[in-house]
Amino acid sequence: MSFWGLAFYVVLVLAVILGTMAYAKTGLSDRVFKNPLTRLYEHVYIFVKNLCVSIIGPHGERFVPMMFTFWIVIFVGNITALLFPTSPTADLSFNLGMALIAVGYVQYAGIVSQYEHLRHEGVSAAAAIPKAIFRHLMHFTGPRLPLVLIPISGLIFVVELISEVMKNVSLSLRLYGNIDGGHQAADAMNKLLYDYYIPVGAFLMPIKLLTCIVQALIFCLLTCVYISLVTHHEEESHDTKEAHAAAH
Amino acid sequence: MEQFGLGIGIAALGAGIGLGLIGYGAMQGMARQPEALGRIQIAMLIAFAFVELVFLLTVFIIPGTLKG
Amino acid sequence: MENQKNQGSAGKALVFFVIGVALMVGGMYVSKNVDIPFQHTLAEQGIPLDLGKTIATIGVFLILFKLLEFFYLKPLTEAIDSRNNALQATFDEAEELKARMTELKTAYEDKLAKSEAEAREEIQKALADAQQMKNQIIAEARTQADEIRRKADEDIEREKAKALVEMRTQVVEMTLTATEKLIGESMDQERQRQLVEKFIDTVEVGK
After folding, report:
1. Over residues A133-159, mean pLDDT
2. Chain C nearest CA to B61, separation (Å)
């Protein structure tokens, strides 16, 4: 897909999202949401919020806008893939962009959580920023090992960095493979009875619809899991420290 | 991609067995503990995603590297 | 404070917007003009990757996060909050009304019970008064009856005594006259009387 082709489909998806949202906004002033679109968006919002809060923890609410955007864009993009020859989410470059943002935001969230933890401990703002970045990088070295085993820590660091890069690849390739693979499977099946004008591939529609929802869910789910891995760790160690102090 | 047909078939077989195992375990867990249904479903989906990814990597990466 | 916060987030959104637009334009430029050799290798392997599109996508999403947050999520959360608040207020009001109703009911019941108790007390008091009056009347009647009986008894005693005395004198007189007539001899009147009286005394004593 060329650049302008992708731009067209992105604009299409965004137009659908913003148009439905603008229509859904008119129902917001009701005392009880009667507008079906408003209710739909409310359900999506509550679902994403529950997802964030249940996986990341009580501080997960600040990631809700991002997750909501990802969910809506991926879902509408996948639905577009059902009705149009292609869609933004069937393009690897677009998916890689989303994955880069997600993983980049995970790093940002990890640094911010370390920073807030440091500030909570009473470190000054200027000193906390480099320390937070350092601590976030130390997070990649795995568990704390004795001095002799530092080369192993270095090895774990390299492996973790590679896995961080692979997160991008896995997030983007999974979405691309599912949506584009669905298209290719449908095309291949259409060829079977092409001579009789029977679109066999169209009967894949239900399973593709399921894929649409599941892929949107998995993208958000995995991003939530990555964020929780980065932000939870510190709090847990904090809790265990307190528990130890209480035990002594 | 034609020359990798059988290989991709075997990859699909492996991924299918993996997905089936995950579904088996998840359903058993759900039947034993219906109250933990939501959490099991989420964990199941994550595991699904990883197994699926292995298959996708097989399809997209391996043929390319072997050819190149 | 709130205003400042809003201004701060608006400024942040503006920064996001500028960066997003810059990334979109940059992505377009990269996609059209920059030739990245590693993309060719990937394309040969059947993986169509265009980093220009990726960069543009990042720009689009940077804008989209803020756009959706301000365009939809903020009004939605406000609406949900206000709805929850309204519900809460309604429930609170209902609770309050219920509490007040219960209070009124208990007060009314208290009042009712109090008036009933008062009435009962009144009746009891009247009954006690009546009882007391009855007892008093009975006691008075009884004393009066006793008095009358005592007086009658006294009268009877007195009459009896009088009659006895009279009878005695008459018996003495009759005895004297009878004796006078029998013996015909006149005795000393005074002496005779003494004799007879002595005799009667002995008779009385002997009786």
Report:
1. 81
2. 7
B46 assigned to some structural domain: yes
Chain C positions in Cβ-Cβ contact with residue A91 (cut-off 8 Å): 48, 53
Confidence grade of residue A70 (pLDDT, cut at 50, 70, 90) = very high
Chain A residues with CB-CB distance to B52 below 8 A: 174, 177-178
* A interface test, pick of B57, B58, B62 with most A CB neighbours within 10 Å: B57
The pLDDT of residue C187: 61
Q: What average pLDDT is seen over chain C?
A: 85
pLDDT, tens digit (0-9, with 9 covering 90-100), for C181-195? 777 666 667 777 788
User: How far apart, in whole angstroms, are the C-alpha atoms of residue C124 and residue C64?
Assistant: 87
Domain that holds residue B46: 19-61
A95 Cβ contact partners less than 8 Å away, ≥ 6 residues apart = A89, A171, A172, A173, A175, A176
> Mean of the per-residue pLDDT values for chain A?
84
pLDDT tens per residue across span C110-119:
999 999 999 9
Every domain of chain A and the residues it spans: 3-247
Q: Could you tell me if residue B3 is inside a domain?
A: no
pLDDT for res A244? 47
Residue B4 lies in a domain: no
| C125 has a pLDDT exceeding 90 | yes
Count of other CB atoms within 10 angstroms of residue A197: 6
Q: Residue A14's closest chain C neighbor by CA?
A: C64
Question: Which residues of C, range 28-57, sit inside 8 Å of A by Cβ?
Answer: 28, 31-32, 47-57
Does residue B9 sit within a domain? no
- How would you label C124-162 residue by residue, b for 16+ Cβ within 10 Å and e otherwise? eeeeeeeeeeeeeeeeeeeeeeeeeeeeeeeeeeeeeee
Query: CA C193, CA C171: separation in Å to the nearest integer?
Result: 11
User: What is the ipTM metric for this complex?
Assistant: 0.83
What total number of domains does chain B contain?
1
